[in-house]
Design a protein that fits this description.
- With about 100 residues, the chain is mainly alpha-helical.
- It has one domain (about 10-95).
- About 70% of the residues lie in helices and about 5% in strands.
- It is built from 5 helices and 2 strands; from the N terminus they run βααβααα.
- A two-stranded antiparallel ribbon has the order 1-2.
- Helix 2 runs antiparallel to helix 3 (about 50-70).
- The longest helix has 19 residues, at about 80-95.
- The termini are close together.
Length: about 100
């Protein structure tokens, strides 16, 4: 088994996560602390590659930001935006909860 700290992930493979974070950036009412976390996450995803551990951390950040955005966010979004959020949430779940198969 490889050490996940040394495994690199192409950020293009994290497109669903990126789109969900971008959607939160434009639609979520977040305080300054969460907004800073969101922008730092998007900056990391702008790199060509990041470590697997970083990708998992960004997935956890998405989960935190979705909670911070509140339950009304999804209700106020158009259907295609909800699909984008759900795809990002699914990719985040996969990164955080999947067994180590690296």
């Amino acid at each position: 088994m490889l050490d996940p700290y040394h495994v690199q992930v192409d950020t293009t493979d994290l497109a669903e996560l990126t789109r969900a974070l971008q959607l939160l950036d434009t639609h979520a009412d977040l305080n300054d602390r969460y907004r800073k976390m969101l922008h730092e996450s998007l900056a990391q995803l702008a790199e060509p590659q990041i470590r697997l551990t970083q990708a998992r951390g960004l997935a956890k950040r998405l989960m935190v930001l979705l909670k911070a955005a509140g339950p009304d966010l999804e209700a106020d979004l158009p259907p295609e935006a909800r699909v984008t959020l759900e795809a990002g949430r699914a990719q985040a779940d996969d990164l955080v909860f999947r067994p180590d198969d690296t």
